[in-house]
């Protein structure tokens, strides 16, 4: 079902995943929903505390916001259609197993099977936001259940409440940064909106980000800011982006002293590529 792409080092579904699903009885509207549902990271875990409550019950798949082995800010469909080979992400052979069940049982009976799992998936339930995150067991089953349009799945549910002081500190830090620099949105290199709270999750990773600034009633995007995420430090991440923007502003203030013919040379120097994208 999947074939290996040497260039991207991914296993991709051979042929059209959409056509395969339609041929096996999955509704087009459910495929579309899975294509548009972007998964989130588990950043809430950094400002939440266990309530001690744990139970086994059915949960709404509509309220599942992500899984610990999927790629955040990619859709359910894309996470299944193309799987990386880094050893810690999803396993394409597990999806192949799920699809064999789809072929053998049919879509309706497969949906029903998720309600009667012998081994429930495991989720964190964030009470304040009323959302679930698959934190250990059940990544592949959950994603396929969402892909085929299942409504519920059986889960072991651990309850969590937000530490409001921590949450407010993080929210204030991000809000102040966006206000100070008139930022509307932040995007990752793939074009998906990026939540700076994701910095709490990742460690020792360099990302390329694009920032949409507000200019009066309009917005414009400046590309290729570098963000090195270290030790889940949100403060450091905000400081890095602030320093890059401030450095750009300083260079822009010098441009008025440089003849227009020489400005292209200035833009091409390392670190200056972004400057022509600003509107000030």
Protein architecture, described:
With 280 residues, the protein is of the alpha+beta class. It has 9 helices and 11 strands. The chain has a 5-stranded mixed sheet with strand order 3-8-6-7-4. Strands 1-2-5 form a 3-stranded antiparallel sheet. It has a 3-stranded antiparallel sheet with strand order 9-10-11, with helices on one face. Helix 4 packs across helix 5 and helix 7 packs parallel to helix 8. The longest helix is centred in the last third of the chain and has 22 residues. It is globular and about 70 Å long. It starts with a strand and ends in a 12-residue tail after the last helix. The model has no long low-confidence stretch (mean pLDDT 92).
Q: What descriptive keywords fit this protein?
A:
280 residues; 9 helices; 28% strand; alpha+beta; three-stranded antiparallel sheet; single chain; five-stranded mixed sheet
Helical segment tally? 9
Q: Strand count, sense and closure of the main sheet?
A: 5 strands, mixed
Q: What's the order of the H and E elements? A: EEHHEEHEHHEEHEHEEEHH
- The pLDDT mean sits at 92
Fraction of residues in β-strands: 25-35%
The strand line-up of the biggest sheet is: 3-8-6-7-4
Rg, alpha carbons? 22 Å
First-last Cα distance: 51 Å
Give the uncertain stretches in residue-range form.
none
Q: How does the helix and strand content classify structurally?
A: alpha+beta
Which range best describes the helical content: under 10%, 10-25%, 25-40%, 40-55%, 55-70% or over 70%? 25-40%
Number of strands: 11
Tell me, what's the shape? globular
């Amino acid at each position: 079902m999947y074939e290996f792409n040497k260039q991207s080092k991914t296993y991709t579904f051979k042929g059209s995943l959409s056509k395969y699903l339609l041929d096996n009885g999955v509704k087009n509207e459910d495929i579309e929903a899975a294509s548009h549902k972007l998964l989130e990271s588990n950043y809430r875990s950094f400002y939440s505390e266990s309530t001690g409550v744990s139970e086994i019950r059915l949960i709404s798949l509509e309220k599942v916001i992500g899984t610990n082995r999927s790629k955040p800010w990619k859709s359910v469909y894309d996470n299944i259609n193309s799987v990386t080979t880094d050893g810690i992400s999803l396993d394409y052979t597990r999806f192949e197993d799920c699809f064999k069940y789809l072929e053998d049982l049919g879509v309706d009976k497969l949906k029903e099977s998720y309600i009667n799992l012998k081994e429930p998936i495991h989720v964190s339930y964030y009470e304040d936001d009323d959302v679930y995150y698959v934190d250990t067991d059940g990544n592949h089953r959950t994603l396929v259940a969402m892909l085929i349009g299942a409504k519920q799945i059986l889960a072991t549910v651990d309850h969590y409440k937000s530490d409001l002081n921590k949450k407010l500190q993080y929210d204030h830090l991000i809000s102040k940064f966006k206000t100070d620099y008139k930022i509307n949105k932040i995007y990752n290199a793939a074009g998906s909106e990026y939540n700076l709270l994701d910095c709490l999750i990742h460690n020792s990773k360099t990302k390329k980000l694009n920032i949409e600034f507000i200019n009066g009633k309009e917005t414009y995007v400046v590309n290729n800011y570098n963000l090195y995420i270290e030790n889940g430090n949100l403060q450091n991440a905000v400081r890095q982006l602030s320093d890059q923007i401030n450095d750009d502003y300083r260079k822009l203030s010098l441009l008025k002293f440089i003849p227009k013919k020489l400005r292209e040379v200035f833009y091409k120097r390392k670190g200056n590529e972004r400057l022509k994208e600003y509107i000030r």
